[in-house]
């Protein structure tokens, strides 16, 4: 006989009666009459073809078959209770979003803004992966795996949202502007050490460098190519902050350092080189984002639009 064919109410009545060895106590706990408990257990015994209780004038006692069944039912009820508790715990936990992004972008643009998301929106746990691998995003139950990439679309096998474009310009420590070799025009860079990030994307696209900027500024034949190259953006920026050279920076990752004053733009808003690369949010190509993930995506797109409008656009007009 299959367990699913057994009457569940009868099993419940038996479990309670077995615990107390009293139909009356079981009835009180279940909110029914003792007669109803007796009928349900009788029904169960008939289905099983065995007796579960020894009945006598003063009450009932479990027999050996009844004790074994009670033990098995208790074990099953414990598993059910554990399953219910696990489900409740999963419901209490916030959905998980795994977001990968280039290390410098994550550290210098995204992380300073996440506190605002937690305060104003929240409702989701975010795991950050500082990488540039092209792992295909995926929805994961109530969560998701998304990616921010710096490159050139279209991106294969995903749906993408443009966050903002990019532009490049020289930055340096304020102390360099106070030294003898002043920085008034691009040709003055010939008297300074140029720092460059030798970075290449997973798409095989090279990060726009000093040579392109110098040629756009009309001094490609007057200024020596960069003397120092770094594989990590942060290393080059640390050297620029320390006054050891002039770096060609991009706006999203240099903005906070410019606002804090540890870096300055020697030529102000002049001589800006538009980058052919963009920052894009990559999401799964099909299906809908879970509600909490959708709120994060909306927040990120709004933050990016505000940055694009208020920062990059303002610099381009200056």
UniProtKB/TrEMBL annotation:
It comes from the Bacteria. Residues 6-63 form the HTH lysR-type domain. InterPro entries: LysR-type_TF_proteobact-type (IPR058163), LysR_HTH_N (IPR000847), LysR_subst-bd (IPR005119), WH-like_DNA-bd_sf (IPR036388), WH_DNA-bd_sf (IPR036390). PROSITE patterns: HTH_LYSR. Signal peptide: none annotated. Belongs to the LysR transcriptional regulatory family. This is LysR substrate-binding domain-containing protein. It comes from Halomonas salifodinae.
